[in-house]
Amino acid sequence: MTDLLLLSKDTPIAKVVDGQIQAILPARLPLFLRRTGDIRAWLESRAIDRHRTNSRLLKRALRLESPDDLRTVLRVNAATITDNYWVKPLDDSRTTWADVRYTVNRFALLALTGDANSFNQPFSRTPELTNTGSFEKCWRLVDGQWWLVKAGTAQELFSELLIYRIGQRLGFPMAEYQPDGDFIRSRDFTHHAAQDFESAVGIIGDASGDYVQNYQALQVYGQPLADAYLQMCYLDALVFNMDRHENNFGVLRDSDTGAVCALAPFYDHNIALVSRGYPKSVAIGRDILIDDFTALAQFAQRPLSVPVLGKEELEVILQGIPWALPVTDAVPEPARLVVDYLLARQAKLREENCAWIHECF
Questions:
Q1: Rounded CA gap, 273 and 111, in Å?
Q2: 127 and 105 in contact (C-beta within 8 Å)?
Q3: Which residues contact 5 (CB under 8 A, 6 or more apart)?
Q4: Which of 35, 271, 272, 347 could crosslink 241 through cysteines, CB 3.0-4.6 Å?
């Protein structure tokens, strides 16, 4: 690896010499680097998932046929939409933040759909090379605001939008989602990196399955962060979100001081609820997600005030979702099943945690 300068906007944060971090402003370092010091792993974690079909098409169009993640991110100075970090060669005195931050994305359709008309273009800086995650997606600039547009099945898109609306109703901090034709889009909650988003891997490593350990790690940054994590775990248990891991939640930091400000808005619920098929029964027996939340609630002993969702209210929340769930012989009324399933999970959560969950109005 060539020697590098790590910056936040135009402020040098650290030097990378012979692959080793030499901090200039330790408090401003990415949390992952503060925890591990592994600059290569941090850079590679910012690369587009090489297993996505459209990732391969994108790299081919950009003349980046090597699968090497390091080479991929360095092609765009490791810059992303959602934070202000970037790198340049240590001997480069000319390149500035204005040169590397993204103002246009000509390869959005290629990244999202594999659009052939987007293939034969000259190279231009694109945020797609640092757009992580396993689903086909792209960044689209709409009226000066970046939106993450994501593909999925009808069940995945239905679940994502419904869970956003449920989280809103519960009063939780949710990333905004909207239908976008055959896709779903989510507004950049850093608002052009007014704050830096960092995934929880920088704090907890890969121990995302241990709710109590995660809670304790977040408490270091203040009880409000830990309380927000408790809310997120409640929502995950309510909507059967199987896929909460260290890279799909995180924190927001002040980009000028490095201070951790808040848990990031809750996002990425497309492997939840009915996205992987209908439950065989709405009756709730042994349930790992409810058990894990219950263990966390008993450890934290923090009051959690949430509205009780009623049947009619859930039916209203479902209205207007543009993706129809498939009808089967076993499930002739999928919307009704979703409502009954959510009510059953809500009842089980409240039964198991009556000492901590309180109704708010």
A1: 27
A2: yes
A3: 12, 14, 15, 16, 87, 88, 89, 90, 92
A4: 272
Is residue 165 located within the same domain as residue 146? no
Give the SS3 label for residue 1.
coil
Predicted local distance difference test score (pLDDT) of residue 361: 58
Tokens of 145: 């605001």
One domain, residues 338 and 211 = yes
* Residue 163 shares a structural domain with residue 135: no
| Same-domain status, 187 and 322 | yes
The b-or-e profile of 217-229 (16+ CB within 10 A means b, else e) is bbeebeeebbbbb
C-alpha span between 87 and 100 (Å, rounded): 9
Segment-wise mean pLDDT, segments of 10 residues, the chain, 361 residues: 95 97 97 96 96 93 87 96 97 97 96 93 93 95 96 97 98 97 97 92 86 96 97 98 93 96 97 95 94 97 95 95 95 96 97 88 58
Secondary structure E strands in 79-182: 85-89, 137-142, 145-150, 177-180
Last residue of a domain, one of 111, 133, 150: 150
Indicate if 246 and 325 belong to the same structural domain. Answer: yes
Alpha-carbon span 44 to 71, nearest angstrom = 9
The two beta strands, 260-263 and 196-199, are unpaired
The total of structural domains in the chain comes to 2
Range of the domain at 123: 4-90+99-150
Instruction: Check whether residue 193 and residue 340 sit in a common domain.
Output: yes
Q: What is the DSSP string of 214-270?
A: HHHHHHTT-HHHHHHHHHHHHHHHHTT-----TTS-EEEE-TTT--EEEEPPB---S
pLDDT at 360: 72
Is the same domain home to 12 and 115?
Answer: yes
First vs last C-alpha separation in the chain: 57
